[in-house]
Here is the input.
Amino acid sequence: MSKVTVIGAGNVGATCANVIAHKDIVNEVVLIDIVGNLAKGKALDTWQQAPIDNYSTYLSGGDDYAASEGSEIVVITAGVPRKPGMSRDDLISTNARIVNTVTENIMKHSKDPIIIVVSNPLDVMTLACWRSSGLDSSKVFGMAGTLDTARYRAFLATALGCSPKDIQALLMGGHGDTMVPLPRYTTVAGIPVTELLGKEELDAIVQRTAVGGGELVQLMGTSAWYAPGAAAAQMVEAIVRDEKRIFPVCAKLDGQYGLHDIFLGVPVKLGKKGIEQIIEVKLNADEMALLNGSAAAVKSVIDVYNNMQL
Ligand code: APR
Here is the structure.
């Protein structure tokens, strides 16, 4: 693969472009923002980092979608970030308008791209993008689970005093406070985490993960960007390298987990065709109840969005 476009050259988009460049896996990254000079400047800055950090990926930026011509993957980070006290759902109408316009522009210049949505509220923005794009749902999905799982793994590494590299975990559901980290599917170098941490401590970590985005908004006055940008870049890498990696991804469900007409975080296999398989793990009654609760919360945001008739 040779070309990736990142829409939105703000905190998350610029970080994502920078991390993709450092992986040295594509010929070209194009950064597009409504503020063209911002995109141009951040692309130039990252290109000037290439001789220092030793990569060949060329970066350019601007406000003209013609530069995105022929992109194999497009990452959408355009939107307004969450401010303190603002829920992700408050962002619906502003960001849906942005995502719809951006998607139409992408589709004018790239045939059959894979689109990764990052803009919040994530599950609904992914639905909006899929509808506007006319693409197969294996090609349009959202970045949430890779980030939320990373936060969960980082908290576990802190609690255990071990390397986050050795923590494998699964987290499902919406990208919001109802997300469902699954301790039963969490291991530390193969050891079930439930053997290493007590229920109370695990529950506290699960709870902190669910509000992990909000914690950073409180600290910084805007939403996070290093881990989100890197998480989107990791998905790009899995596709570019056709790695068949298993990540929790916000995907369209057509009967999986008994759910229909919804985009929700589930484990998928990611490769060069996009989502190559949605994996249905066995959930017990408690886990299924949590997933259904999260799906209901996402559906209520979808209803709000549908009623806006944007
Ligand atoms: N087309 C292109 N770019 C746009 C458009 C548009 N129609 N509207 C806004 N943008 C750009 C802004 O100019 C800005 O540079 O999107 C960028 C957003 O960057 P930030 O404000 O820094 O926001 P960021 O922290 O990057 O978050 C972007 O990702 O994680 C989510 O919740 C977050 O929805 C938010 C998105």
In short: The mean pLDDT is 95. The pocket of adenosine-5-diphosphoribose is lined by residues 7-13, 33-35, 38, 77-79, 81-82, 95, 98, 101-102, 118-120, 222-223, 225, 228 (CB under 6 Å).
